[in-house]
Amino acid sequence: NVIFKNFLKPEFNGNIFPINIKSDKVLGVKGYKSIKDVPDTVDLAVIVIPARFVNSVVEECIEKKVKSCVVIPGGFSECGETERENEMRALVEKSTMRIIGPNCLGVFDTKSHVDTIFLPDEKMGRPPSGKISMISQSGAFVAAMLDWTAYEKIGMGKVISFGNMVDVNNADLLAYLSKDPETKVITMYMEGLKDGKQFLKAASDATKHKPVVILKSGRSKAGAMAASSHTGSLAGADTIYDAAFKQAGLIRTYSSEELFDIAKAFSYQELPKGNKVAIITDGGGAGVMATDACEDWGIELAEFDNKTKTKMKEKFPPYCSVKNPIDLTGDADADRFEVALNAVLEDENVDAILLIVLFQVPTLDESIVKRITEINKKSKKPIIVVSSGGEFTKRKIKELEEEDLPCYQTPERGVRALAAMYQYYQHIQKKTEK
Amino acid sequence: NVIFKNFLKPEFNGNIFPINIKSDKVLGVKGYKSIKDVPDTVDLAVIVIPARFVNSVVEECIEKKVKSCVVIPGGFSECGETERENEMRALVEKSTMRIIGPNCLGVFDTKSHVDTIFLPDEKMGRPPSGKISMISQSGAFVAAMLDWTAYEKIGMGKVISFGNMVDVNNADLLAYLSKDPETKVITMYMEGLKDGKQFLKAASDATKHKPVVILKSGRSKAGAMAASSHTGSLAGADTIYDAAFKQAGLIRTYSSEELFDIAKAFSYQELPKGNKVAIITDGGGAGVMATDACEDWGIELAEFDNKTKTKMKEKFPPYCSVKNPIDLTGDADADRFEVALNAVLEDENVDAILLIVLFQVPTLDESIVKRITEINKKSKKPIIVVSSGGEFTKRKIKELEEEDLPCYQTPERGVRALAAMYQYYQHIQKKTEK
C-alpha cells in the first residue's frame, strides 16, 4: 500500500498499473489480475507479495518482457530458503530482465521519483534532490539515512537497497552510478562481498570518474560474526578489505556521519589541488582544534605570502592574528571575514579554506552569509565551513548549505572531509600520471 | 547592557545594583555612581568597563568588601598589558575577594540564574538546568557550547569561562565543582596549563568524587603554536599531558561532540559494573557497526545465559537472533523490545545495554518510548540508546532524553560514551582498592 501510494504522488509522471488478483481497482486506479493483462509495455515491476508466490510472478514478468524488477519481500536465502532464491536466479539468467532484490527496500530516485521504499512519509522523510547516490547492503541503513538526510536537507540522487543480489549486485550498481550524470559522489554501506574481484574491478573503474566513499562494517571478529548472521556475508579479514579498498581508490569511513560528512564536501565543492589549508576563525579555540585535526589528517597549514598578510594587516585591528590560523577574534564583523577570505583565495600557497564561523559573535551581522556565498561562487578552491551552535546557527547553516557550502558541527569533522577530498585528488593524479 | 538585562530576567531572584558614573537609573533600576554607595552588602560584582579603568574599580570593590568579582573585558596580559594584570593580581592577593577573569565570559549558572554572558538570547540560547558543569579556557567555546546544548536540550549546571586566571584558576574551579552537589559530571576545555602540579592535584581529587571529561587542544606542534597565540598557553608535549591526565583519572576527548556525548551518559545514567554489553537492535547493520565499535573501545559482547535466550525465543519469530547482538529485525514491535530489554537486564552476565531503536520500522508504535523509559527507571544498569533518523526520530529522542536516556546518532558515538563510563568505573575501583 505504501509503495503504491508513493507512485501516486503528483511528482511521479509515469503510468502505473496495479496488479491484484482480488480487485480491479486499487486506490481508484484500474487494476489487473496479472501483469500479462497490462495493455502497455512495462519498464519496471515492483513485486510485493509473500515470498512463496514471487517466482511465478517473476516468470510472468519475463513473459511480458518487463525490463526490470524490484523484489521487496524477504523469505529467501537469508532465511535458509536457498532453493527458492536459486530458482529465481535461474529464471532471470535465462532472460534479459534484471532483478534488484529480493529482501530489500529497492530504489529511491529523486529525479524520476521512483520510490519503492515501504516506509510512509510520517515514519521516514524523503531527502531533496542532489548529487549524492547510495548503494546499501542493509535496508534499515537506507531507511535511517534517507530519513536523516531529509531532516538535514542533504541532497540525494539515487539510493538503492539491493538485498540478496540474486541478479544485480553492488558491482553492477557501482558501474551504473559511475556513469550516471546525476551522480557526483557515490556512498556505500557494505557488510561483505560475494565476488571480491568483480567488485574491486568495478570500484577501480568507478573511482576514475567520481569519488566513492564506503562504510564497511564487520571489521572486528565479533562484528564479522554479526554480519554473517545479518546478511550472510563472509566479512573476511579486515586488513585485506582495507588494502583492496585503498588500491581501488575507495575512501573508507567508520561511521554514517563520517560517510555523509565526506559525501557532502564532494557533492558541493571542487577538489583541492594540494593539502595546504588556510584556517580563518572568529574563535581562537576552534582554530587551535582545527590545527590539531589538520595534523591528524595530513593537512598542512599554508604559509601565507607576505602580500596576503599585508592585505589583512591594513584592515584589521592589531590584536587579530594574520598568521595561519587567521584569528579574527570575538569582535569580528562580516568585513573582516570578507577581507580574509579574499586574501587567502588569491594566495597561491593556499589550496583550500577552512572557514570557522561562530555566529554567536555579537558584531557579526546577517550579511555574512551572503558575503561568503558570493565569494564561494567565484572560488576555484574548496571552502569548508565549521559552525557550532543552536537555533540561529542552524538557520545560517541551512542558508549556507543551500548555496553549496558544506557545514560541519566541529573543526574535526570539517578537516576530516577536506582530507578525504585531498586523498581522492591524489588518487586521480596518480591514475593520470600512469 | 546584555549582562545587566540577564540579571533583570524574572528567574533571577537576587538584588541588583547598577553602577554607572553617568546615570542614576539604568533600565529603570536605581543606579549608583560608585559601588561604595550601594546600601547593602555585595556578593558579586561584574565589571564591564574598558580595561584601563578596571583596577580602580577592583580597588573600590575590595574596600566595599565585595565577596567576588567577575572581570569581563580584555586588554590585559593577552594583549601585552602584563603590568595592568599584575597590578590586579597584587590587589586581589592582599584581599579576601576572589576574581574570575579578566578577558572572559564569566559565569552561567542554571540554578541561581547568574548569567554574565554578554551574548543576547537571539545570538546564543541558554540550556536548561542539568548536572553537567563546564570550565573553559576559551570564551568562544563556552558560547558555542551553551548555544548548542540549549538547542539539543542538554541540561547544564554551572559554566565558567575563566579567562586570564589572575586569581581563580582552573584548579580552583575543579575543586569547587567536585564538591558542588548540583554537578554530577565536569567537562573542561583547556589549551594549556600555568601550574601543572596544582591542576593535577585538583584533578586527582575531583575524580574521586565525579567524572571529569576534558578536551585539551594544542596537541599538535602547529596547534600548540596556535594555542600560544590564542591564550598565551604553553601547550607542552602532548604525551606528557596524556600520561598525566590518565594518572589523574581524567577522561580525554578529541572533539566537542565527544566531550558532550560522554558527559550526557554520565549525567543521565548509572556506571556499568563491568564491560559486558548487550546490544539490542531492530536494524541488523547498526548491530554490526555497534559490535565493531565495541571492539575498538574495549567493550565486550556479553555471553547470555541460556535462560535469557529462552525468554526471547519463546516470544520471538524464528528469524530473530537471540544471540548478542540481539536482532529484533525490521518488523520489530514494542513488545519485542520490552521482552529483550527485560531479559538482558535480568542476566548477570550483562553490565550495560546498548539499545538501537530505528524508529522508521513500520511495526513500531509510539508506546515504545514509554516502555523503554519505564524499564530505565527501575534499571541499575546503564542503558545507552542509538537512534538515527529525521523529524520523527528527533521527537522521540527528545522524549527519551527528558527521561534521562542518553541518545546517540550513531552506534560508534553510543559505544564511545559507554567506554568512557567503564573507564571511569575502573578508575574509581582502583582508587578504592588502594
Describe the structure.
The structure is a homodimer of 434-residue chains. Chain A is of the alpha/beta class and 434 residues long. Helix content of chain A is 44%, strand content 16%. The first copy, chain A, is built from 15 helices and 17 strands. Chain A has a six-stranded mixed β-sheet, with helices on both faces. In chain A, strands 12, 13, 14, 15, 16 and 17 form a six-stranded parallel β-sheet that branches. The longest helix of chain A is centred in the C-terminal third of the chain and has 23 residues, at 411-433. Chain A is elongated and about 80 Å long. Chains A and B meet through α4, α7, α10, α14 and α15 of A and α4, α7, α10, α14 and α15 of B.
Helix content of chain A: 40-55%
Largest sheet report of chain A: 6 strands, mixed
Label the structural class of chain A: alpha/beta
| Uncertain residue segments of chain A | none
Radius of gyration of chain A (Å): 25 Å
Question: Given the C-alpha coordinates, what overall shape of chain A results?
Answer: elongated
Measured by residues with Cβ under 8 Å of the partner chain's Cβ, the largest interface is: A-B, 81 and 80 residues
Find the count of extended strands of chain A (DSSP E, 2+ residues): 17
